[in-house]
């Protein structure tokens, strides 16, 4: 398990966003020690699922730390990112302490004559004499890409910090 870090931040705000059928809010925090703002995502639906409940908990923890009253029925925020962003706008400028966990995701890209093949959530890439065997996380089947078809290849790593706790300083 990756180590947790506690960081003193100022909550900058939230923006409602819908992407690929998911509804949620982008959260922005500013640390005096880091040049780039810390960004996180709180999923809010569109339906009541485990990720939506986790995102709703993150929104409610920010509201509680900022001493802003949560709605009477917090589940009413599920699927309503605009309402959550409006509530979080009132918390802008509040000093918080967040616990963050470093996260990363690997992607394998292979350019071929037919186009670009992209494999997400890569665990390992094994180079055999005739192919690249891309092992994926979560026990999913590996992807085999014939080596003679590949013109160029690249492995990308995306790194970010996930906010796992919010408190008052």
Distance between the termini: 25 Å
From N to C, what is the helix and strand string?
Answer: EEEHHEEEEEE
Query: From the alpha-carbon coordinates, what is the Rg to the nearest angstrom?
Result: 20 Å
The count of domains is 2
Portion of residues in beta strands equals: over 45%
The name of the CATH architecture of the largest domain is: Beta Barrel
For the record, what CATH class of the largest domain applies?
Answer: Mainly Beta
Number of strands: 9
Q: What is the molecular shape?
A: elongated
Uncertain segments: none
| Class by SSE composition | mainly beta
Summarize the amount of helix as a percent range: 10-25%
In CATH, the topology of the largest domain is named OB fold (Dihydrolipoamide Acetyltransferase, E2P)
Largest sheet: 6 strands, antiparallel
Description:
This protein has 169 residues and is mainly β. It has 2 domains: 5-102 and 161-167, OB fold (Dihydrolipoamide Acetyltransferase, E2P) (Beta Barrel); 104-160. The chain is built from 2 helices and 9 strands. The chain has helices spanning 50-65, 81-89, and strands at 5-19, 22-31, 38-45, 95-112, 115-119, 122-127, 131-136, 143-146, 150-167. The strands form 2 sheets. Strands 1, 2, 3, 4, 5 and 9 form a 6-stranded antiparallel beta sheet that branches. It has a 3-stranded antiparallel beta sheet with strand order 6-7-8, with no helix packed on it. β4 (95-112) and β5 form a beta hairpin. The radius of gyration is 20 Å and the shape is elongated. The mean pLDDT is 92.
């Amino acid at each position: 398990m990756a180590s947790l870090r506690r960081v003193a931040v100022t909550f900058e705000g939230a923006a409602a966003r819908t992407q690929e059928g998911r509804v949620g809010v982008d959260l922005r925090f500013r640390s005096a020690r880091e040049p780039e703002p810390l960004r996180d995502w709180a999923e809010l639906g569109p339906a009541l699922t485990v990720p939506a409940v986790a995102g709703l908990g993150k929104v409610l923890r920010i509201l509680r730390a900022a001493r802003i009253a949560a709605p009477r029925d917090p589940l009413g925020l599920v699927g309503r990112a605009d309402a959550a962003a409006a509530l979080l706008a009132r918390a802008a400028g509040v000093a918080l302490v967040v616990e963050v966990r470093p996260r990363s995701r690997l992607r394998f890209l292979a350019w071929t004559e037919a186009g670009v093949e992209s494999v997400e959530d890569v665990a390992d890439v094994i180079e055999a004499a005739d192919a690249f065997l891309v092992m994926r996380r979560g026990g999913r089947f590996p992807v085999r890409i014939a080596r003679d078809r590949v013109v160029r290849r690249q492995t990308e790593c995306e790194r970010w910090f996930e906010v796992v706790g919010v408190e008052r300083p």
